[in-house]
Specification:
The protein has 218 residues and is mainly alpha-helical. It has 11 helices and no strands. The termini are far apart. Pfam families: TetR_C_11 (PF16859), TetR_N (PF00440). InterPro entries: DNA-bd_HTH_TetR-type_CS (IPR023772), Homeodomain-like_sf (IPR009057), HTH-type_TetR-like_transc_reg (IPR050109), HTH_TetR (IPR001647), Tet_transcr_reg_TetR-rel_C_sf (IPR036271), TetR_C (IPR011075). This is TetR/AcrR family transcriptional regulator. Keywords: DNA-binding, Transcription, Transcription regulation.
Length: 218
């Protein structure tokens, strides 16, 4: 019971607001960016709060006023960088809505949030708190957006009703992670004059997702 309580407290650490004097947003950002950099270089096992503080140019006391532990720091970083998938305006078509969703997810995965996810996927397999917060920060926003995309499409008559609209989120996240993280040529595509890895993935995935949802393309 004690372990579960501690785990739940850690999973919500990234959303807590520090008491006392107001937080310095620029200093917070520097610490979060430093966390991503140190994680990318050394992995979760090699990350220390001292290394993050030094990279950010602050004292460890400054870091500990914001996050109580290494795990709290990583959780806060995951929430900050990976949960930036906001509400989507109605584009008027399923194809437009899906393209916007895929583009937002590609932008996230190709930025700091993606680098963080890449490092933490393995660690989350045996760290329940990290696995929970990665699901909350990365998967849940896509589930919410996907449910909205499907509802609009059904209301417009673009597709038949789906038994589980949120399965679209699994297709979007799984496909984008596979294309951007696990496909050998994706890492090198950005060095060419062709489309970015994210844009290339969208071109490949969009027709497939439309067919999987039962849409008729004009």
């Amino acid at each position: 019971m004690g372990e579960r309580t501690e785990s739940n407290q850690t999973a919500t650490a990234g959303r807590r607001t520090a008491r006392g004097r107001p937080r310095d947003a620029e200093r917070d950002r520097a610490l979060l960016e430093a966390t991503v950099q140190v994680l990318q270089e050394n992995g979760y096992g090699g990350l220390t709060t001292a290394a993050v503080a030094k990279r950010a140019g602050v004292s460890t006391a400054t870091l500990y006023r914001r996050w109580r532990s290494k795990e709290d720091l990583v959780v806060g970083t995951a929430v900050r960088w990976a949960s930036d998938l906001g509400p989507q305006p109605d584009t008027g078509s399923l194809e437009g809505d899906l393209a916007a969703l895929l583009r937002d997810k590609a932008d996230t995965l190709e930025g700091p949030g993606g680098r963080l996810l890449h490092v933490l996927i393995g660690e989350s397999a045996h760290n329940e708190a990290l696995a929970r917060v990665l699901d909350t920060a990365i998967i849940e926003p896509v589930r919410d957006r996907s449910a909205t995309v499907v509802r609009r499409a059904v209301d417009r008559g673009d597709i038949p009703p789906l038994e589980n609209p949120q399965v679209l989120a699994d297709l979007v996240v799984g496909s984008m992670v596979s294309r951007l993280f696990l496909t050998p040529d994706a890492a090198h595509r950005s060095a060419t004059d062709g489309p970015s890895s994210g844009e290339a993935a969208i071109r490949e995935l969009l027709p497939f997702l439309l067919r999987a949802l039962g849409a008729q393309r004009g």
